[in-house]
């Protein structure tokens, strides 16, 4: 129906009723003078008289018109709200940020979040206070220290070996027999030989 001809006062006895005649948008039944024409309906549900059906159709038409009116009012209110927000400089992004912040604050103060945080704290204390955790932590700490020491020793040995090799002059490095007799080369040769054999 045309919204211009409607009575939007929800307390009015004529609320939502427009000009006489027309077709109801939901049921497709003709509307005559604000009431449904029962003649347009071929069959009645069992247990209903024509008079009761006419009352129900009339009430249905009024409710549908109220719904349409409320939709129109809501659209007008949303437009007005958007205009006010625009004038205040509120953007959808700012609103989203505010909503997320407010939502997170609500979550943090909720009983479920508080109880979960407390329970996780209790579990953490139990786990970190257990003997198994302490032993595992100590073992990993010792293993880390030993690994660090091994890498440090290996780095020192490699530096020393490379230093030994750098003491040779270019002529000595070109001379294979001299190089083969060096302790570094022999050590390297032994290791490579062991790899081939093993």
UniProtKB/TrEMBL annotation:
- Kindly list the residue ranges recorded as spanning the membrane: none
Q: Where is this region: Disordered?
A: 1-22
Q: Which UniProt keywords apply?
A: Coiled coil
Per its UniProt record, what Pfam families does this chain match? Answer: TPD52 (PF04201)
Q: Which GO terms describe its cellular component?
A: cytoplasm
- On whether Coiled coil is a keyword of this UniProt record, the answer is yes
**Coiled coil, from the record:** 53-80
Q: Which family does it belong to?
A: Belongs to the TPD52 family.
The name this protein carries in UniProt is Tpd52 like 2b
- The scientific name of the source species is Hucho hucho (huchen)
